[in-house]
Design brief:
alpha/beta
Length: about 400
């Protein structure tokens, strides 16, 4: 299989120069191990995986001897399976001034994050990886973080092909799992079925203690049905036949597994009557489409849920940009009790960039009216716009643009 360069590479190597240990977390099969093995190719770095039963038992029973045998610099894959190593890693980090001693991967879990945080506070940098972005699938890697000015969008557009609804929904329906990209429709169905049974259900039982596996499968499908919408625990609970309390716990578990992400509502002391409910999105739209039985790109593209999937796709690309970018950016959405809504607000350096998301080539400019609610905040409202299926960036007014979704 041809290696697809990952956008996280730049940030990972930068953090490896500054921290003694760097850990990449994320959902199963998004490419964490593949990336780190690729980066370690030209280094004298040992590689061990805790998927190997003998190595795992060795690490669990005698972590000191294990790390004498496999000395840093080292890449330890699936480190969550041998949490006994963390205390020894801490000691070795404290004994050396060298950076990048330990490269770690871990399938995201609450237990892993707590154990790693408790043992390696101040020594460990944790980076999150997602399935393939549209940049990675196209082999196009913009050097700069997103700039919401029209001139920046126009410059960025020169790197990208034409925005096309069929290509976009192929990307949405297929998702970004590396192993899915070369599969046909029948193979994809079996891949996702196996993914759920082999990884998600096993992790739900082994790592999170879930005993109602059939209820959890129904809950996964219910979450997929509500993607791009306000999180309603009662509706999810009814769909899965579980209690509201169980629904809340399972949402947290799916977050910790890297399957879903919640976009929190924007809050401000100046703005009253804001809703406090987050919106639910899947980290991979291909898995979401499979769970909702969208069996082809065209059926999904022409179906009733197309707008929600398009929004999920765009939000997901923004989430990836922020995770892999240089600058700190907060992502939220706005909705108040008067039903005024802004799909996405990117806050950077105290400046708010409002974004609407619409699956149309020429959305109504009146959508920008919702942005006026932000004038009541003490923060500066910067450039924004409408992410849509336009071919090229177009200015709407002095601050806002029509933005092709394939250049996000």
């Amino acid at each position: 299989m041809i290696y697809i360069r990952r956008e996280l590479e730049r940030k990972f190597l930068r953090m490896s120069e500054a921290f003694k240990a760097v850990m990449v977390v994320g959902a199963r099969q998004v490419g964490k191990s593949t990336m780190l093995k690729q980066l370690a190719k030209d280094q004298n770095r040992a590689y061990v995986t805790m998927d190997d039963t003998q190595l795992r038992q060795f690490a669990q029973s005698d972590p000191k001897l294990f790390l004498q045998t496999y000395r840093p610099p080292i890449l330890i894959d699936e480190v969550q399976k041998a949490p006994e190593l963390f205390e020894r890693i801490k000691i070795l980090c404290d004994e050396s001034e060298e950076k990048g001693l330990f490269w770690l991967t871990g399938s995201q879990s609450k237990k892993l994050m707590k154990k790693a945080g408790d043992s390696l506070a101040g020594r460990l940098c944790v980076l999150k990886m997602y399935s393939l972005s549209q940049h990675e699938l196209l082999g196009i890697y913009p050097e700069n973080d997103i700039d919401f000015s029209f001139s920046a969008w126009a410059d960025r557009k020169r790197m990208f092909p034409e925005n096309n609804i069929v290509d976009t929904f192929e990307r949405i329906w297929r998702g970004g799992m590396p192993d899915v990209q070369a599969l046909d429709q029948e193979q994809m169905q079996e891949y996702f079925n196996s993914y759920i049974e082999t990884y998600l259900m096993r992790d739900a039982v082994d790592d999170n203690g879930i005993t109602d596996t059939e209820g959890f499968r129904k809950f996964l499908r219910a979450c997929a049905a509500f993607t791009g919408q306000l999180l309603n625990y009662n509706d999810l609970a009814v769909s899965a036949g579980v209690t509201g309390a169980t629904a809340k716990e399972w949402v947290k578990i799916l977050q910790s597994m890297g399957i879903i992400t919640l976009l929190e509502p924007y809050s401000s002391n100046e703005l009253k009557r804001l809703i406090k409910t987050p919106k639910l999105y899947f980290c991979d739209t291909g898995l979401c489409a499979y769970l909702s039985s969208w069996t082809s790109r065209d059926v999904l593209m022409n179906g009733a849920a197309a707008g929600h999937y398009y929004e999920n796709h765009v939000v997901g690309e923004f989430v990836r940009n922020v995770a892999y970018g240089k600058n700190k950016v907060n992502l939220n959405f706005y909705r108040d009790q008067n039903m005024k809504e802004i799909d996405l607000i990117a806050e950077e350096n105290g400046v708010l960039h409002p974004v609407e998301i619409k699956k149309a080539s020429e959305p109504d400019r009146k959508l920008l009216r919702a942005f006026s609610v932000l004038k009541e905040t003490a923060k500066h409202v910067g450039n924004g716009g409408i992410v849509c299926m336009t071919d090229v960036p177009l200015p709407i007014d002095e601050k806002n643009s029509f933005i092709p979704s394939n250049i996000i």
